[in-house]
Protein: GTPase Era
Organism: Paenibacillus elgii
Amino acid sequence: KSGFVAIIGRPNVGKSTLMNQVIGQKIAIMSDKPQTTRNKIHGVYTTDQAQIVFLDTPGIHKPSSKLGDYMIKAAEGALSEVDAILFLIDVVEGLGGGDRYIIETLKKVKTPVILVMNKIDQIHPEALLSVITTYKDLYPFAEIVPISAMHGNNVNTLLEQVIKFL
Ligand code: GDP
Ligand code: MG
């Protein structure tokens, strides 16, 4: 199995940290260089059973100009072309305006979305349940996977879920 997966989420939710866990330090650092292509490659994860190309989708933010409008269209196009979307959130920060805006964009594409609840090392399980409920009410996520990108908790489970959509 092989396919393309977009990683989206507000700044500081842990996108780069997750890529470092999955793919390794070197590639994630390289991919932090700005690129002008529609989808920039974060890295490629390869095992016997699967190859997943992880993409970063620029432009998932509130449009503030004409360029913003163009960027948003490009982002929607990019999200339509992938096999699955990983929408990362920070369980400590919880729902913010940035997340709400991203969710509005997700409603315009048909690609399955996995809600990745990151930084579970920082929250009590009961509090996590209430964060899950908040997000569940806003969008019909294909899967919900709590992880700690930093410590690597549940990252293998996340990869197994991703592979299902390839
Ligand atoms: P990005 O902007 O989405 O790429 O976020 P980064 O990967 O740069 O992470 C932002 C900050 O959150 C950094 O200080 C990370 O070390 C921290 N971080 C990322 N994942 C975790 C996690 O699972 N647990 C904790 N406690 N911190 C995390
Ligand atoms: Mg980053």
In short: The first helix runs from residue 15 to 23. The radius of gyration is 15 Å. Helices lie at 15-23, 25-30, 66-81, 97-106, 125-136, 155-164. The chain has a mean pLDDT of 87.
